[in-house]
Specification:
The chain is mostly helical. It has two domains: 122 residues, no CATH class; 196 residues, no CATH class. 72% of the residues lie in helices and 0% in strands. Helix 2 packs antiparallel against helix 3, helix 8 packs antiparallel against helix 9 and helix 13 packs antiparallel against helix 14. It is globular.
């Protein structure tokens, strides 16, 4: 991509996100979401591959429909209450429409169909942005309106997302699709607790962003997009593959890694809210996600390919590692002992 175009799109992403997360007016929040959508479209389509163009069109149509629904929801609320403040969402129809629109923007079940396809048609760097930065503005709107949302509906969507994210990720061989279903599953965990503990949702999202960034940057360094190439990437970057296994186990929520902290706190909070059955269901559904995380970890570092592959081998590998990967990897693996410093803020 042209450096000037990259600068404009990056600045637009930052501007759109900032406008959305700092605004209290529905029109400004909608404007920030639209700036974000327009800024990410050139990044998805920059390879000019037919799959990338298809992903761009799917992403644009879904985001345009979701943005129109958000604007329509705010108009209905303003018509009935005279309020344009985001926190003053009191009309039941507006609440229902907003929940559906934000679920569409995030990729929550049952509006999840576009997300794996768009990630599969994007580069690893763009997929990282779609999985992390592009989710932050919609989650911020959910946090601001959490007092007005319908708890049974959100709980149903959250449990369905955790179930479908784990179940459909089992038979995937493309790493971007696996990480897309992982994102859907994690969004279910964030959504189920957003009404009862909004700060815990924010903590879960920040830790998910940390872990996912480390994984995507590691895969981008080794140029790995499929399970078969992951099995042979240890010849190029053995240390990176060893740490990738630990990050995957952290994302799965296994102690003693930091990924265990949000799931533990969410189950504890759900138990306090007398939602023990929901907590038990989510804990059991996380075993589905754990299976394909373990399969990825096993393929990356423990097992060897049974035969030679047909892929082109690089006779020279760039040894200049990205220092950001080292920082994110260290935090992903070793941050749990510092969790007592985080807990008082929740």
């Amino acid at each position: 991509m042209n450096p000037h175009a990259k600068l404009i799109t990056t600045a637009s992403l930052i501007l759109g996100t900032t406008i959305t997360i700092t605004s209290n007016h529905w029109a400004m929040a909608w404007t920030g979401l639209e700036i974000n959508t327009i800024a990410i479209i050139p990044m998805i389509s920059k390879s000019h591959h037919p799959r990338a163009i298809e992903a761009t069109i799917k992403y644009f149509l879904v985001q345009a429909a979701a943005s129109a629904s958000i604007l329509f929801s705010s108009l209905i609320n303003a018509w009935s209450t005279g309020q344009w403040d985001i926190t003053q969402l009191t009309n039941p129809t507006s609440c229902l429409l907003l929940t559906a629109a934000i679920a569409m923007k995030l990729g929550l079940v049952p509006f999840h169909f576009w997300f794996p396809e768009v990630l599969q048609g994007s580069s690893l760097t763009t997929a990282l942005l779609l999985s992390t930065a592009m989710k932050f503005p919609p989650i911020t709107i959910l946090l601001l309106t959490s007092n007005s949302l319908n708890p049974p509906l959100l709980t149903l969507m959250a449990v369905a997302s955790a179930a479908l994210g784990g179940w459909t990720g089992l038979n995937q061989t493309q790493l971007r699709k696996i990480l897309a279903f992982s994102s859907i599953s994690h969004l279910g965990w964030m959504t189920v607790i957003i009404i009862y503990a909004p700060k815990l949702t924010l903590l879960t999202f920040l830790l998910y962003t940390l872990l996912t960034s480390a994984i995507f940057l590691s895969l981008n360094t080794s140029h790995t997009t499929k399970l078969s190439t992951l099995m042979t990437s240890w010849t190029k970057t053995p240390m990176l593959n060893a740490t990738l296994m630990l990050i995957l186990l952290s994302l799965a929520g296994l102690p003693p890694f930091i990924g265990f902290l949000p799931k533990w706190l969410i189950i504890q909070e759900l138990t306090k809210q007398e939602m023990t059955s929901t907590a038990l269901t989510l804990a059991l559904l996380s075993l589905l996600s754990l299976f394909f995380y373990l399969r990825l970890a096993y393929s990356s570092s423990i097992t060897l390919p049974p035969n030679s592959t047909n892929q082109t081998k690089h006779w020279y590998t760039n040894k200049n590692a990205n220092p950001l990967i080292a920082i994110l990897t260290s935090l992903s693996i070793l941050l749990l002992p510092l969790s007592p410093l985080i807990l008082p803020t929740i």
